[in-house]
Amino acid sequence: MTAVLRSPSGSLERAWLTDLEDEAIHIIREVFGQFENPVLLFSGGKDSIVMAHLAMKAFWPTRLPFPLMHVDTGHNFAEVIAYRDRKVTEWGAKLIVASVQDAIDSGRVTETAGQTRNPLQTVPLLDAITSNGFDAVLGGARRDEEKARAKERVFSVRDDFGQWDPRNQRPELWDLYNGRHRRGEHVRIFPLSNWTELDIWAYIEHEGIEVPDIYFAHEREVVDRDGMLLAVTEFTPVREGETPRVESVRYRTVGDATCTGAVASTAGTVADIVVETAASTISERGATRADDRASEAAMEDRKRQGYF
Amino acid sequence: MPGGLLRVVTAGSVDDGKSTLVGRLLHDAKAVLADQMTAVEAASERRGYAGADLALLVDGLRAEREQGITIDVAYRYFATAKRTFILADTPGHVQYTRNTVTGASTADVAVILADARSGVVEQTKRHLAVVSLLRVSEIVLAVNKMDLVGYAESRFDEIVADFAAAATSLGVDHFTPIPIAALAGDNVVVRSENMPWYSGESLLEFLETVEPSAGPDLPARLPVQVVIRPRSSDYPDYRGYAGRVEAGVLRRGDKVQILPSGRFSTVAGIDTPTGELDSARAGRSVTVRLTDDIDVARGDQIVVDGEPAPLVTREIEATLCWLTDRPLRSADRFQLRHTTRDVRAVVDAVESKLDIASVQPIAAAEMGLNDIGRVRIRLAEQIVVDPYVRNRSTGAFLLVDESSGATVAAGLVH
C-alpha cells in the first residue's frame, strides 16, 4: 500500500468501496443460501465489526440470521470486550464465547510460560465448531494481511480435523462459490478477502460505523519490547530492564493484549486514521503482531492446524 | 472500469519468472512496505542468495519458498496514482493449471509470460487457450529474461510471431507484446534503455492505461440468492428477493418475468438498507420487491420482459476445462452449479478436445486433467442460461463431484 492508494477526490474511493460492499454482501448471502448452520466470528475488532455491519445489510430488514462467536483468549483489552457486549445487545444477536481460559482449565490446551495465548485459540475454536455443529464459519480475514492469507480462497474447506491444505484448494471460478462439504468438514468464508486495511477504514468512515476507543489515539503506559510498543496491562507487566513511559498511541489491530502492539499516533478521528494508514510504510501485522514474527511461515503453520 | 479497479492475472510456464515479475512490479511501484522488504532481505540472506529475491514477496507458502515455485494463486493489492489493481499471481506447473483458470475467470487483463530463451512452449499455448476461452479481454505477452538473449530484437520478434500464430488459431484478434527483464526491472515499471528498439509502453504503463472493453449492453439478469421475509412487527408482510444484478439494469416499474416458472410481475421497489433505488446496474447487490405475491425462490432468475430472453433448458452444449486427475467420460454424473442454482447433471457425450500443440480440436471420447473440450450435458431440472460469449455470469457453471464436493470442471455454455 502506498500513500497514493486511493483518489483523494472521494468519487473513485466511493465507487471502489461500493464494489467491495456489493461483493461481500453477495458472498454473505451465498453462505445463507448454501449452508444449514453458519456462524460469524466477532471479536470486536475493526474487520469483524465491518463483517457484522455487512451481514446486517445483506439481510435487512431481517435481523442478523447467524449467531456471533468470539474466541476469547482471556487476555483482551477491557474496552473491546465492553464494546462487544454492548453491540451484541444493541443488535439483538446471540453471542457464543469460546474460551481459551476454559480450555486451559479443563486441560484441553497447555499454556507455555512466556508465550502468547493467540495460537491456543485453535482448539477452543474447533471444539466450538464441532459442539455447535457449525458448517460455515464467516471471518473477517483479509488477503492483504499476510502472505499465507493471500493464498486463501473466499470459500475455504477445512477437513474434519479443521486443517487447511493450501496445496489442494478447490479452484474458485468466477463468483460461483462452492460450499459443498462432507459431514464433519466445515467451510471458512472470507467475504473481506479483497479488502485492504485502508479500505476497511475508508468504509468505516463512509458508513459512520462505531469502533472501540482503543483504535483512536490515547495516552497509555507502554514499554518497548521486540521492536513494538506494548501496553502495560495485568497480562503484560513491565519486565526487568524495561522503563515504562506514557505515550500517545493507538491500535491498528486489536487481538490478544499479549501480542498486539500499539503504534505512536495522534489520530483522534476515523478520518485521521485513514490519512495515517495511507501514509504508513509499515504493514499492519508487521507493526503490531508479535506472533507472526516467530518464523517465516508462522501464520501458514497455524492456519494448517485450524487457526483462523 | 468505474472505480478505477483493474483485475490482472499472470500466467506462464515454470521458471519463466512470474513471481519475480510480480515482486518487481510491487517493488518498483512502491507497493512494498518497509517491514515486508526487510523480511525478504533476511530470508534471502538465510538462503545464501546474492541479493533480495523479490519472488519471496509473493511465494507465501512454506513449500513454495523451499522449492522456489508458486503452487497456488496469490492475490495482491496495489495501486498507483492512476489505478487500483487486484493481481492474481498464478502457478505455472501443468498440475496447477486449475489455479490459472481460477485467476483468469475474473480477470480483465492476462499477462502471459514466456522465457526469451525457450519462447512459446506448450504451457504458453495452454495459458493462451485458457485466457481466450474465459474471455479475458486484454492479453499481454511479456517476453521475460531479455537480458539472457542479449536484448535481441530479432529473438523478441520470433516469439511474438509464434504467439500470434497460436492466438489466430484460437480466435484472439489482438494482444500486446512487451519485452522485459523482470530480475533487473527492464520495461516492468520504467522503460528500459537496454532495448532502444522497443518504443512501446512498460508493463505498468500499459496496465495503468488499458481500457478493457466494457462488453455489449446486456439484458437484465438477477439470480435470486435469498428470499427476505422478516416477519417482524415493523415489516409484517415484507417479502423481498435478494441477489446481485449480474447484467444490465433493473428499474422500478419494470415488467419482469420470473424464470424458469415463466410468471410475470412488476418491480415494486429496489431496496437497500440506506434507502430505495430507482435502478440497479450490474454488480449491485440489492433486494427487489414485486407487485404480485408469486412464488419466487433461490435459484430463480428475474429478467426484464421485452429484453432478449435467456434460454430455459435441460440440455446444454458447453466447453469444459477439466480440473481433476480422474478422467471425464460419457455418462458421468455431477452436481452442476449455475448462478444460484444447483441441479443434477449427466455428461451425455464428450465430443472433442483441444490439442494444445496444434491448437486445434480433435475427436475424443474422454478428457484428462487440464484438457479443454466440448461436451453435451443433460440436466435433471431446467436452468436459465445465456451463451458465455454474451454473458460471463449467466453463461458460466461448475461441475461438482457429488461425493467429495470438489469442483472438477469449469464450464462455458455455447
From TrEMBL, chain A:
Residues 37-261 form the Phosphoadenosine phosphosulphate reductase domain. Keywords: ATP-binding, Nucleotide-binding, Nucleotidyltransferase, Transferase. It is an enzyme of class 2 (transferase). The keyword Transferase applies. The keyword Translocase does not apply. PANTHER family: SULFATE ADENYLYLTRANSFERASE SUBUNIT 2. This is Sulfate adenylyltransferase subunit 2. It comes from Jatrophihabitans telluris. The lineage of its organism: Bacteria, Bacillati, Actinomycetota, Actinomycetes, Jatrophihabitantales.
TrEMBL record, chain B:
InterPro entries: CysN_GTP-bd, CysN_II, CysN_NoDQ_III, G_TR_CS, GTP-eEF1A_C, P-loop_NTPase, Small_GTP-bd, SO4_adenylTrfase_lsu. It is an enzyme of class 2 (transferase). Its EC number is 2.7.7.4. Residues 3-217 form the Tr-type G domain. Keywords: ATP-binding, GTP-binding, Nucleotide-binding, Nucleotidyltransferase, Transferase. PROSITE patterns: G_TR_1, G_TR_2. SUPFAM superfamilies: EF-Tu/eEF-1alpha/eIF2-gamma C-terminal domain, P-loop containing nucleoside triphosphate hydrolases, Translation proteins. It comes from Jatrophihabitans telluris. Gene3D superfamilies: P-loop containing nucleotide triphosphate hydrolases, Translation factors. It comes from the Bacteria. This is sulfate adenylyltransferase.
